[in-house]
Specification:
The chain is mainly alpha-helical and 84 residues long. It has 4 helices and no strands.
Length: 84
């Protein structure tokens, strides 16, 4: 799976789509799985679980560049979606 860098308007659109789909169980499940795959691809790429992301940034093991910022966004969104 190729990762795409999202621009702010795409991110806003994604948030709106996730919010709109929260009452549609089938769509919600598809979006949640899509998020899981995106997050898993970042974890494989950087060799660490998302739970250690902020710790790695604080320790200087990861630079908070655009890719890492996108990972943070998708992981945070996944956490929010799974909490529902």
């Amino acid at each position: 799976m190729a990762l795409e860098i999202s621009n702010p308007s795409e991110i806003a659109q994604q948030i709106a789509e996730y919010r709109a789909g929260r009452y549609d169980n089938e769509r919600h499940a598809r979006k949640r799985e899509e998020l899981r795959q995106i997050v898993a691809s970042y974890e494989a790429r950087f060799g660490m679980p998302s739970e250690r992301l902020h710790e790695a940034i604080e320790a200087g093991l990861l630079d908070e560049d655009r890719d890492v910022g996108d990972w943070i966004f998708h992981y945070s969104l996944l956490c929010r979606v799974e909490a529902r």
